[in-house]
Design goal:
The chain has 280 residues and is α+β, with helices and mostly antiparallel strands. The chain has one domain. The strands form 4 sheets. Strands 3-8-9-10 form a 4-stranded antiparallel β-sheet, sandwiched between helices. A hairpin with a 4-residue loop joins strand 9 and strand 10.
Length: 280
């Protein structure tokens, strides 16, 4: 009779150790490849939204869509028309998909959020709810993208006068028509960015001082995806550790004031993208 051989304990431990080493080498590469795929999908989403934004303006005689997301807690999942203020008779680009406790993680149920997206003014131009959501967004959030204040969004102090945006030199800060985006030009003015979560209104950023209003967002690696008024999209990587650290908070800090040169440069880049220039 032949005597069968088996692996010794030492041999098994060596094999396990080799597998562990290979996994340690491969996992970071696999993680990077997965993130790059998700970043590319997100970049495509904001590009599609940007193109839909252009098509909407084409159909409405150059008037751009209401950049605010409706925030009416009495009409969850619905989308109304603004009755006054700076958006008279303008339908919101998306309806009420935001929970009143969004800053501490509150969420509406997914079907209510989807209903608000489908009811929005932009949905006929981009009729796929999946395109409103980044693959790496917060679980349960059906919309992770937002329009910035300056693009017919919520007009905050120092950026508008009466019912019109302020013109500084050749730059119109807060705009209602594509023709208003004259300087520094559509290719340099932001429309959409990826916040990674559902928020109301539009994305806020100070103009007259060196301070964030809404926080910076770190969505992919150390940056975020954005779309511009000419239809192109891009990945923005932040340079400052303090920008990245604030953006990676579970509930990022609002009204954040940078203290480093790199942090101030990150802020200035965002402000110029939103307003076309610095106001300080």
């Amino acid at each position: 009779m032949r005597k069968s051989k088996a692996f010794t304990l030492i041999e098994l431990l060596v094999v396990i150790a080799i597998i562990a080493i290979l996994m340690a080498i491969l996992m970071p590469s696999l993680k990077r490849a997965r993130e790059q795929g998700q970043r590319a999908a997100c970049l495509n989403n904001v590009k599609q939204l940007g193109l839909a934004w252009i098509l909407y303006a084409d159909d409405y005689d150059d008037k751009i869509v209401n950049g605010e997301a409706e925030y009416n807690q009495n009409a969850l999942g619905q989308c109304g028309v603004s009755t006054g203020g700076l958006h008279p008779r303008e339908k919101y680009w998306v309806g009420t998909d935001c929970h009143s406790g969004y800053m501490t993680g509150g969420q509406l149920d997914e079907e209510t959020q989807l209903s608000a997206i489908r009811a929005g003014a932009l949905f006929p131009y981009v009729p796929s709810a999946k395109l409103y959501q980044c693959p790496t967004g917060i679980r349960g959030e059906m919309r992770t993208y937002t329009i910035v204040d300056s693009i017919n969004g919520l007009a905050r102090d120092g950026t508008f006068s009466g019912t019109k945006g302020i013109r500084v030199g050749r730059t119109m800060l807060w705009v209602k028509r594509r023709a208003d985006i004259s300087q520094p030009g559509p290719s340099n003015r932001l429309v959409f960015l990826d916040e990674g979560r559902v928020t109301p209104d539009s994305y806020a950023c100070h103009y007259i001082n060196a301070r964030w209003w809404d926080p910076p967002h770190v969505r992919h690696g150390d940056g975020t995806n954005v779309a511009f008024a000419d239809g192109h999209s891009a990945y923005w990587k932040w340079d400052s550790k303090e920008t990245i650290n604030v953006g990676k908070m579970v509930n990022p800090e609002h009204q954040f004031t940078p203290t480093t040169e790199a942090g101030l440069e990150d802020l200035a880049r965002m402000q110029i993208g939103i307003w076309g220039r610095l106001g300080y």
